Amino acid sequence: MSSVRHIRLDRHGGSSEVEFNPQRISTAPSGVQQGAADGRSIRTSRSVNIFGPIHGPVTEFSFLGQILAHASQADKQETGIPMSLKILAAAAALTIGATITTPVAAQGGLDAIPALMRPEYFSRDLLLFIEGLELSDEQQIIVELAFEDYEQDFNAGIESMNTKITAIADQVDELRDNEDQLLATVLAPIQDWAIEREVLNEQLLENVKVLLDAQQQAKWVAFARRLYREKNLPHGVLAGESVNLFHVTRDLELEPWAGTPLAQPLMGYDVDMDTALHHRFNQSLVQPGSGFIDVIKRREGGSPEDVARRKAMLSARVGIRDVNDAAIEQISQALGGEEGRAFRHEALKRGYGRIFRTTPAQRVFAAALEAQCVTDDPALRTSLQNLFDTYIGRLDEFNESILVETRAWEPKQQANAIENTARRARGENIQRIDDPTRQIYQDRREMGAQYMEELKELIGLECFQALDGARRFLPRSATASTTGDKANGAGQLTSGAADKGPDRANQGRSLIQRKPGNGPLKPNDRGEEGRGGEDQGRGR
Residue 382: pLDDT above 90? Predict the structure, then answer.
């Protein structure tokens, strides 16, 4: 029974008949419009649920497990291997991040190995192709089949690599006296797979391109930038490096159409970010001619070359962050007014979550504005709103100061970490640098505690105690009491109360930071990166 099927693609001014075959797809143009097929072919096979997860060998890391298992056994038996297989496995993983010329290499380090074991494109990415290229129904069917063929080839490649690794594991004892050969043997199947994986990625994109008509082909360059951005922008390390401003405009329901204030700055951002992302990827590569073992020795020895390479990568990361920061200001100015302020706050909150996420004091203010003990008294609510507006003005000043210091200090901290790695390798003492934002965060917490004291005096202790999130600002004797009488006059509020315990995700609602006269307050979700108290963040 033949597996060949036929579908006719109706296009502008003509049509093309597509022949489905598990081995090959060819197009036979009819009429005046040939689209973009012109004798080229794409490969595909069975259909697949485009919204279903990918299972099977893709998520299995047995190859690394086998290496580590042999390493553990070798260590226990004290076989006298000069460099344990466990270290070799780690070195192999590190080397992958520094030597393989594929997009996942830009992540660097151990993260590169899991990335190589995952497809570059998932079935959910089909929506990007449909949206960005405006695929017709018939084209969607063919691209869906191309995605399934990609998945099948990917899984087959993973299985082949696992088979090679298993064979290598059986040769460990023979190679244990030759460290360089052992390392090269361990790395070979992984590097081969990385190259094959990149071929599969390029093949999928080509399979899509041959289906496009002239109008869709014209959109390909912009679509390719979007696709590269979606895949690579999330791999940031610095604050502000990974935020996608196109996502911010989408979520705020802003319209970047031609002729709108958003069109020009977003177009510039699109091009500048693409350049910066490719530059970061280029910095992740080792110079031609460098061998795996040389790379590992340079990494282990903290050589000047490795330090320079890491600092070049850091500089590229700063470049991406700076593109984001500059575009945030340009877009917010282009929008102007309340829309511009809302965009700037949301974009900075996503990029610098530790700074701009909702503070505990904000959540208490939000709860107070909705409390019955306040809403029943219009004059009290007006006084409370004025107090809150004053707090927001002070908070904005602190946040801007922290933002400036963070942008300057974080690259210095990362550069110092690179130097410390080299110092350890040379047997030298590491150096620590002070975080200038630490004191500003402390001052901000104390300022919030002072405003909570004013809020308590304004609405009364009984009303204050009932507010969601207020317990962190109460003395311990008051929080242990169930009535206001037992806690009456018990101590002053301190910033230390805000430092204890994790944030309570279900306590209170947050508000968009607004200065007086900027319109009514609106509830907003907490910052995406907010975890724990406002003083908690990534370790320094």
Answer: yes
